[in-house]
Amino acid sequence: MYNALAKHGGMSLTMKCRGDLWIDDHHTAEDSALALGTAFKKALGEVRGIKRYGTGHAPLDEALSRAVIDISGRPFCVTELGLKREKIGDLSTEMIPHVFHSFAMAAGVTLHVDVLRGENDHHRAESAFKALALAIRQAIERTGGDDVPSTKGVL
Hints:
By secondary structure, this protein is of the alpha+beta class.
């Protein structure tokens, strides 16, 4: 899923993670998302000259997802993924919303991710990550200016 996020978000990403998977996948999923969010925030630096808001829609076969991001400095996350299976591969599906939440908290962004339709949980999850990637790509697009994208002048 992180590969899809990086590829479709136009990002270069290398992650190495070693977790306590003999217990469960919670800490590994959470900590990798926190690290990714922290790296994202650091890479953005001072938020100037970007669009700030982004939306993305991504299909994967029968699944369709929508993601909306606000690079606001106000971390918040809402997800409606409708996952039914217990696991996708070795990942507990309950961790997928937690990954989005952890990323949003660490990155300091407001994030809404919804799966609009789909039957296959893998397709639903992957389309959600791809939709987020497209939203991020749009939000970080340069505007050509150097202004802070806020009516208050600060984020």
